[in-house]
Amino acid sequence: MFNDAIALRNQAHADALPFISDAELSRRVITAAKQTPERAWLGEVSAVVLQQALADACAAFGNFFASLTGRRKGPRLGQPRFRSRKDSRQAIRFTKNARFAITEGGKLRLPKIGDVAVRWSRSLPCEPSSVTVVKDAAGRYFASFVVEVAAGPLPATSAEAGIDLGLSHFAVLSNGRKITSPRFPRRAEKKLKRLHKALSRKEKGSKNRARARIQVARQHAKVADARREFHHQTSTRIIRENQTVVVEDLAVKGLARTRLAKSVHDAGWSQFTGMLEYKAKLYGRTFVRVDRFFPSSKLCSACGTIAGAMPLTVREWTCACGALHDRDINAAINILTAGRRQVAAGRKPASEMGGKRRPKTPAEAGKTRPPARKRGRNGPADETGSHRSAA
Length: 391
Prior knowledge:
391 residues; alpha+beta; 3-stranded antiparallel β-sheet; 15 strands
């Protein structure tokens, strides 16, 4: 359905024909297609699944046009592309109109599929409005339900936390607590290397290669699940213990182009800060992002003096005022102080802006970004070892 919809609209654009409406698209790729021998098998599945796939295609075009006109913020989106039936991740979605149900025996009843045994991770708090069945690269199936719940705020606390994310330690809090980085891919690197080597030796298209690919995917899924669980446990604990949480708005895409890319992807900072943000909004906490150009590491938290150049090898430094600083703890304290000033100035924290970047104040509007660093052949001058192919 998705590919047929994209093909029809692309063909209409190439032939200089009017844009095909959503209703006309549904008539062509669903109603009329079922009458043809090539698409007769579409009648064997629920019509709701076909409609949801078509809705995804229409939404992809809508996002593309909104990005072109500037109505959609963020990175520029490209034209919708075809999906491959060999994609490692596949999903179908059932809404209430499909009349899916949960049986008394705890099975999931899906239209034109039947009763499916489910290993429930938790009980549903209310009647779900839709269910998405997902098959991941490792061949595992998941049922994801959409439910509406009203989460009450947590009891108020006076504690606040500034968080400095790093690589030697996953996170350092302003109270001096350091959270060790688990480095899940590093621990599984030896086994992954062996499995990838075995996969490369299998003949393409053979059953042995298909089995080897599943083994590689399962190992990657195991690493991703462990990282996600660590992020959930850590973010929940921080949100429960602190009324205000302040983090630095890191440029993860830029850091992923340096020689530290493997460790940056290993840490998963974006996923972790995203969890902090939505959990703060859910439980009535305050979440603040500090500008990425704020000199948190070089600023003395005692006197406010900004030190000179400070390479990553410097983990402790002494200010001219005599204060001895641990680099990471000092950065976390400065991040918390900057977050307090941001809230005191009346700027909305990220938890109240729906994840959108806050508007600039008149004082900040006149400021410009720091000048771009001179790039050498292999990347920025202070990031030696960057690969030329890392785009």
